[in-house]
Specification:
There is one protein chain. The protein has 324 residues and is mainly alpha-helical. The protein has a single domain, classed as Voltage-dependent anion channel (Glycosyltransferase). 72% of the residues lie in helices and 0% in strands. It has 14 helices and no strands. The chain starts with a helix and ends in a 9-residue tail after the last helix. The relative contact order is 0.12.
């Protein structure tokens, strides 16, 4: 029995997915959402800081576990990095650092600064590594999916806490990269979704990633400029449209079996919730108060559900399985 349990644990480490850092993105994003909600609406819940601590705990667990995989099963980690789809999930690590920086900013500015430097630098390097790979390799249209947004469009996140640390021109640099590749990849992905084969059930949850670029772009743009103008409104309402569109497909998502990719539901919902809170803060329209509250409740329920299914899979040794 001990040998069997040891073999299961060893197999779990061997196939431990780097994409599990998406759980930190979801929990960290929910922490930021609650922090903003508590501050703007003067509600003393204390949920935001609790979720921030939890995000650090989960980040530490996933980081240490994946580091052990890199040390003990180096070929598996290399194969994951060389995989056309799985390589994009490495961006969940760098994005997690940036989200932790955002969540920590109001409590420990120095720590937030270090996390921002590390996250922004590593994410930019990942962007530089992955784009030439796309250019120099031949991919079929079926290879592309919303996960490809992560390593390049993730640059849009950099300005949110970066406004506290560097010159705005540097932030515009990151924002411009993220925005450009959002438009380019969105066009290709939408073409693939309509005119080619459907996404596999495992990748269906990644459709929610379509919400994140305009929602995060709105937060970053208003953070840099300090105002909501026509362009900001366009980003906001595109994000809200995608939420409505995906909710209209709820039956399709509810019928899916659990995969680690379920975490793709979480951060985009957090991002659009935060965008709604910012909208109320800057426009003082009561509609955004109600929208932010409803979205926060929905996002919380979704993350609780995904977290429960993740723990259930972990305890039953079904989280880390070999994939093709």
């Amino acid at each position: 029995m001990l040998m069997r349990e040891g073999d299961l644990l060893d197999r779990g480490l061997q196939y431990f997915p780097v994409g599990l850092f998406a759980s930190v993105m979801g929990l960290g994003g929910l922490s930021v959402a609650y922090q903003r909600y508590e501050h703007i609406f003067n509600v003393q819940l204390g949920v935001g800081v609790i979720l921030l601590y939890l995000s650090y705990v989960v980040f530490s667990f996933v980081a240490v576990t994946y580091l052990l995989k890199v040390i003990k099963y180096t070929p598996n980690a290399i194969a994951e990095f060389n995989h056309p789809d799985k390589v994009s999930f490495f961006a969940t690590f760098t994005i997690s650092l940036i989200i932790l920086s955002i969540g920590t900013l109001e409590y420990q500015k120095a720590i937030s600064h270090y996390l921002w430097i590390l996250g922004a630098t590593m994410h930019f390097l990942l962007t530089i590594i992955i784009i030439p790979r796309w250019i120099n390799h031949t991919f079929e249209i079926e290879n592309i999916n919303p996960v490809w947004f992560l390593p390049v469009v993730g640059n849009i996140l950099v300005p949110i806490s970066g406004v506290q640390f560097v010159h705005p021109e540097i932030l515009w640099f990151f924002f411009s990269i993220g925005f450009f590749f959002w438009v380019v990849l969105y066009t290709i992905i939408f073409y693939r979704l309509i005119f080619h084969s459907q996404l596999s059930p495992k990748l269906m949850p990644t459709l929610f990633i379509l919400v994140a670029p305009p929602a995060v772009g709105f937060a970053a743009y208003t953070r840099i400029t300090g105002q909501i103008d026509g362009f900001a409104r366009m980003l906001l309402y595109i994000a809200l449209f995608f939420v409505i569109l995906l909710l209209s497909m709820a039956r399709k998502f509810l019928g899916l079996n659990f995969f680690v990719s379920w975490w793709a539901y979480t951060f985009p919902l957090c991002a659009v919730t935060i965008a709604s809170i910012i909208s109320f803060e800057m426009l003082r329209l009561e509609a955004f108060h109600w929208l932010a509250t409803i979205l926060l409740i929905i996002t919380t329920v979704v993350i609780l559900r995904v977290a429960y299914k993740t723990l259930q899979a972990l305890f039953h040794n079904k989280l880390c399985v070999r994939e093709g």
